Amino acid sequence: MTTALVTGATAGIGAAFARQLAGLGSDLVLVARDEARLESKAQQLRSYGVKVEVLTADLADEEGCARVEGRCGQGIDLLVNNAGIGTRDAFHQAPREQEEHLLRLNVRAPMRLAHAALPPMLARGSGAIVNVSSVAAFTPGTRAPTYSASKAWLTNFSESLHLQYAGQGVKVLALCPGFTRTEFHRRAEMDLSGIPVRLWLDAGDVVRTALHDLHRGRALSVPGTQYKAVVAASRVVPPRIQRVVLRRLQSRFL
Ligand SMILES: NC(=O)c1ccc[n+]([C@@H]2O[C@H](COP(=O)([O-])OP(=O)(O)OC[C@H]3O[C@@H](n4cnc5c(N)ncnc54)[C@H](OP(=O)(O)O)[C@@H]3O)[C@@H](O)[C@H]2O)c1
Fold it and tell me: Could you tell me the distance, in angstroms and rounded to a whole number, from the CA of residue 85 to the centre of ligand 1?
């Protein structure tokens, strides 16, 4: 029996991870801030016959992050660093505290949880870490630069860990989805009604692709052919041309 710790497990992509991992027979540790929602999610998932612990914690907060770190250090088989937030404001209009909060959640927390989870995994010679990044990691941000920069950090960090630990039995994957129907955009008060329907992904499909890619030992998982094309283009199109295209997309859709 394996144990997976999933951050942001009550909604969207994290909830899909928790559901699919429970379906595969994994015990779970669920992390989020809303205790009632966590308990209700845990109750539903126990119907799969797995053990489910809940850890109510704000990962952007020092004390909350330290408690989850402590649980990671006790030994887990899979860490899913999923909790993350976006912002809507132009950088100069965003409160500085909001930008710092984003960095504490999107960057500091995954780094600290990975740092705590790795030693027991390496001692056992097995384990896995999935860092939920974004396709936004591959290009400059059209609107919220701190968000895209946080995901560029997380993707590079994951690929570096993948390189470093691949030979020691620990798999590390950066999951880079595009627009996915979850609570994410509503929380950030973003209006994405102009985004074409074909660009939207389903959280369940995103997680199925990620688990398949993790199983295959890949470093990067980009669900959906439309986003695979975006990532491939970001690697070959010169940055100057990318900036022209991004400016046009920004004025049309965002
Ligand atoms: N949706 C997309 O289009 C999209 C695209 C690319 C990448 N992503 C990435 O996917 C990840 C998951 O996003 P999602 O779309 O599934 O978001 P979501 O539906 O808004 O769910 C966010 C989850 O994170 C938890 N959370 C939020 N702030 C937290 C905090 N400070 N401490 C602990 N838990 C916290 C929330 O629960 P509580 O509020 O109870 O804490 C909830 O369980 C994020 O890292 C995001 O950047 C999303």
Answer: 6
